[in-house]
Amino acid sequence: MIEIEDVHKSFGLLEVIKGVTMNVARGEVVSVIGGSGSGKSTLLMCVNGLEPINSGRILVDGTVVHARETDLNKLRTKIGIVFQQWNAFPHLTVLENVMLAPRKVLGKSRQDAEAVAVERLTHVGLADKLKVYPSKLSGGQQQRMAIARALAMSPDYMLLDEVTSALDPQLVGEVLDTLRLLSSEGMTMIVVTHEIRFARDVSNRVAFFHQGRIHEIGPPEQVIGSPRQPETMAFLKSVL
Amino acid sequence: MLAGCIVTIEVAVLSIIIGIAFGVLLALARMGRKDVWSWVANAWIEVARNTPALFQIYLAYFGLGSLGLHISSFLALLAGITFNNAGYLAETFRGGLRAIPGTQIRAARSLGMTAGQGFRLVVLPQLIRVVYYPITNQMILAVLMTALGLTVGLDSDLAGVTQRFNVLTYRTFEYFSVAAVLYYLVAKILLAAARLLAFRLFRY
Amino acid sequence: MFNASISPNDILFMLRGAGVTLLLTFWAVLGGTLLGVAFGLLRATAPGWPSYALGTLLDVFRSVPLLIQLILATAFAPIAGLDWQPFTVACLVLAVYASAYCTEIVRGSILAVPLSTRRAARSLGLTWWDDLTVIVFPIALRVGLPSWMNLALGLMKDSALVLWLGIIELLRSSQIVVTRTQEPLLVLMIAGTIYFLISFPIARLGTWFETRWQVHD
Fold first, then answer.
1. Contact list, A85 vs chain B (CB under 8 Å)
2. Residue A8 vs residue A86, higher pLDDT
3. Does B121 touch chain A (CB under 8 A)?
């Protein structure tokens, strides 16, 4: 379970998260929607400790993320994150990209790591690209590789940060299909997205972010179907 | 004269290898905290880049001599060229590190890698590729710089051997033409070897 | 041996040497740039075997030590029946040497201008010549100027090698002062400082151009 309790976060003088509280239960898919610069992506970075926070706290399975005694590297093996810019490692093949962390962080043998990597890559539909370098892949393929790379750590949680925003429109579908597959398998996910239709179809709950706060959170039928806040209505109107 | 080629290659390759080691240290010192070491690195880099290589060799040969530290012309040449290489390579490494986006480290950390693992497994292999061609260029320049050994009386390298023959026979043009051809071949062979190695090394 | 110290005359002598260094640099840069621009244009705009042959020829000057080139030219001049001063030979060798580097800078800068930009210019009805002078040159100049400044500084430093021909430039003049005063370290320090004072500000200016123009890309 991920528990976010009254988190505040500033970059210099600019406060981007102004007191956010939110829980995500095991097996749940929560979509976070909202305009650019509303702090949604920053929140994900905070959840796995890539960004420090100013106050409040975040717990993952009862472990306080920003506590001094927390072993972040160990914690991060439980939390997969995929970025808007997929950040493929250009010097490694697709297979090596996915095998790297299981071998070096989890200490798996080459055979074990390879077996897992092939399995995950097959899962995201890249079984025929194992020996290829990322530069030879399309954006959608690189993004699916990044998803497989995170999945190879067998995480309990997946954080997805606008994973389709940098893709050409015709490539968005293949990545969303991969995410649908994950949610149907019961993966716990926080999905920051601009794809409202996807959020409506896949999520258990949708959170609407506005100016560093959650303005509305609830089942998709409610937040997207019949929003109560004027800001939510205005936002949905502008993107749909 | 072929034996002279070997000495020339020896000096060039040694000066590059030691130069890389010092270059890395200088780059790290320059990027690190503002302390005595960053000051030393700055001074080294700027002097290496803003004075003639010949001056640097003179400094090693005549300058150190007046401090009571007399070194052979071979060592003076090696020290001078290494000093020069290190200064230029330090800037190459600094630029190379900047060329690798910070998001790569972030992606590595998000997979649970330590900062050290992220640098060793993700940043370093990419850095090696970025700086590889500048290093081979610097190596060719080092080959050309070895001819400066002549001015401090080195007589075992290609230029020195040529000069020895020249003094005996006064056939300056003939002997130095042969030397020029040999320098050209040495430069091209080293370059070809470096390209071949790159072909094996970088497949992406 | 009496303890001779460095006199104001010695400093003046070295400054005169620095003047010779700068004069050499000036002629080398001037000649090298004129030749380099012509060759570079040829290399960039007229592909095919002449351009390739020129490239290979100029590459020779970048693959043979400058000192060897200077010695060869000095030995060759009398053979060819030319009664040239060492200074003239030095300027010529340095200029040709510079042109070999300048050609690649010019060629690289011109080729760095994206084809789409040139197509856009031509699509607006600009002629080949207009495209070259109004669009390509201004962009290429920004790309190439920092490298060109580095080349000029490199020549200033490389010009020290002409001391082998007996020309009294900065480094040779300091050697002469060393012979008189027997204070190599101190005298060399002064010479190094003069080199540094000439080179460092220009190098900084080059870096400044580079960063300034990158921002506006």
1. 103
2. A8
3. yes
